[in-house]
Amino acid sequence: MAICPECEANIEVDDDVDEGQTFDCPECGAELEVVSTNPLELDAVPPNEDEEDEGYA
Q: Which of 9, 21, 22, 32 is 20 to 30 A off residue 48, Cα-Cα?
């Protein structure tokens, strides 16, 4: 069990997750990354500015 850093929802996470793995919060939809497996810690992935700028170049 982990806590979403964005909405503080409890999230069930598989025991075999790896650092760097990403997934979306089922409650708020935030993209999260596993930053530590012991203890299990998640961090929000910042939006990729390159993706936002596509089509404007």
A: 9
